[in-house]
């Protein structure tokens, strides 16, 4: 056996052989990835042609029956190839969502030709790396024209930039799934003439960011925006005796930590944002809720026209007369006109103690008959009513497929 051992040793592949095999497989995967990208781009061109046809035919953007049939067909085609229904469904939900949003964008552009411009000047809270910065990048990535970013220290400053014409648009966070509504934004909306022209929901993934080699046990001070501290309150409670210092924005917190280069301090923000400041995440998923998302609105000086083919939202602000049941009476107007309310928020009226304004989001297009009837009726029973904006809804509900239908031969 002693003589046989060198023989077996010689037959065993060297590590370089494994590395060469691995590299060859990776090259094949990369080639397939490039091919997939080309096919996805080609598919997107076809969906743009679909949008053009729907514009001419005045057809709705979404066709739930067609989407469900498509998913069922794809799931069945994927099964013999070893692709699970969950994998196929998840993949095509992303593709369908992208297709819907692209079609909505093209329809909106056709309806608002004057809005097309070579440069989009956009004001947002904080600087590069803030969550508002990331949301701005996401929203305007689908819009034509170059993006000019204008970071601001406060919501008042953001609104001022657009009102004075220094910026064309503003991106404002309006609510979060963990910490709720952002009251400061609702308050500035009371006193502005700007219109809401868009919305988006952006995932908020909080991470503990440091500038140098350290660990959690060495930390003494944390920097973050107050909303972030609220969203990560459970994590902060676990840390125990640690000083929390609020900043005007997430980007300001990251900049502070980057400049100090101190192993005892950290910021809470996104890992992609932290990378812009040379920060490294040492713990992720800090939010109280695993599914942590923020909803942002986009405002401009002029309202937009939303084609009836596009799912739309309308935001109202109103004050009711001072009598029992006044709010209920106003809400019944929405119900009687078959209008679904998605949000109701109350805020105090400055200078009028114990009186409140009500912000309402509804799933309706301002040009639609039932919505116009509701507006007319609300004017008759409220003290004041203002439409803050009608805009395309970018919340694309995933297509549902019953398991029995998907697995049926």
Automatic annotation (TrEMBL):
GO terms for cellular component: cytoplasm. Residues 121-301 form the Prephenate dehydratase domain. It is found in: Cytoplasm. CDD domains: ACT_CM-PDT, PBP2_Ct-PDT_like. Residues 15-42 form a coiled coil. It catalyses: prephenate + H(+) = 3-phenylpyruvate + CO2 + H2O; chorismate = prephenate. The keyword ATP-binding does not apply. Residues 315-392 form the ACT domain. InterPro entries: ACT-like_dom_sf (IPR045865), ACT_dom (IPR002912), Chor_mutase/pphenate_deHydtase (IPR008242), Chorismate_II_sf (IPR036263), CM_dom_sf (IPR036979), CM_II_prokaryot (IPR002701), CM_P_1 (IPR010952), Preph_deHydtase (IPR001086). GO terms for biological process: chorismate metabolic process; L-phenylalanine biosynthetic process. GO terms for molecular function: chorismate mutase activity; prephenate dehydratase activity. SUPFAM superfamilies: ACT-like, Chorismate mutase II, Periplasmic binding protein-like II. Residues 16-107 form the Chorismate mutase domain. PANTHER family: PREPHENATE DEHYDRATASE P PROTEIN, PREPHENATE DEHYDRATASE-RELATED. Catalyzes the Claisen rearrangement of chorismate to prephenate and the decarboxylation/dehydration of prephenate to phenylpyruvate. This is Bifunctional chorismate mutase/prephenate dehydratase. It comes from Bowmanella pacifica.
């Amino acid at each position: 056996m002693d003589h046989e051992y060198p023989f077996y040793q010689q037959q065993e592949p060297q590590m370089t052989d494994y590395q060469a095999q691995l590299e060859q497989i990776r090259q094949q995967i990369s080639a397939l990835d490039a091919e997939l990208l080309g096919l996805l781009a080609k598919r997107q061109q076809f969906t743009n042609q679909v949008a053009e046809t729907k514009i001419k035919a005045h057809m709705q953007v979404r066709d739930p029956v067609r989407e469900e049939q498509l998913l069922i067909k794809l799931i069945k085609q994927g099964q013999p190839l070893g692709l699970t229904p969950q994998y196929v469904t998840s993949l095509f939900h992303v593709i369908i969502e992208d297709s819907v949003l692209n079609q909505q964008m093209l329809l909106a552009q056709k309806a608002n030709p004057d809005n097309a411009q070579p440069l989009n000047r956009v004001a947002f809270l904080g600087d590069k790396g803030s969550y508002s910065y990331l949301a701005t990048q996401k929203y305007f990535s689908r819009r034509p024209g170059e993006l000019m970013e204008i970071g601001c220290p406060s919501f008042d400053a953001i609104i001022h930039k657009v009102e004075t014409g220094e910026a064309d648009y503003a991106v404002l966070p309006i609510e979060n799934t963990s910490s709720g509504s952002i009251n400061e934004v609702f308050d500035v909306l009371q006193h502005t003439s700007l219109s809401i022209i868009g919305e988006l929901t952006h995932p908020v993934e909080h991470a503990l960011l440091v500038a140098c080699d350290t660990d959690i046990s060495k930390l003494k001070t944390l920097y973050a925006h107050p909303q972030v501290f609220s969203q990560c309150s459970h994590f902060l409670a676990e840390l125990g005796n640690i000083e929390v210092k609020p900043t005007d924005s997430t980007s300001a917190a990251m900049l502070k930590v980057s400049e100090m280069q101190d192993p005892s301090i950290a910021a809470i923000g996104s890992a992609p944002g932290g990378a812009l400041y040379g920060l490294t995440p040492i713990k992720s998923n800090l939010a109280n809720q695993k599914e942590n998302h923020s909803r942002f609105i986009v405002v401009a000086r002029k309202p937009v026209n939303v084609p009836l083919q596009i799912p739309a939202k309308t935001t109202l602000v109103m004050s009711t007369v001072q009598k029992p049941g006044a709010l209920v009476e106003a809400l019944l107007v929405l119900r009687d006109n078959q209008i679904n309310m998605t949000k109701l928020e109350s805020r105090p009226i400055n200078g009028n103690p114990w009186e409140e304004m009500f912000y309402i989001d509804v799933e309706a297009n301002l040009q639609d008959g039932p919505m116009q009837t509701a507006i007319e009726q609300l004017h008759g029973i409220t003290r004041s009513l203002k439409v803050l904006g009608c805009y395309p809804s970018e919340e694309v509900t995933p297509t549902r497929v019953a398991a029995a239908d998907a697995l049926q031969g």
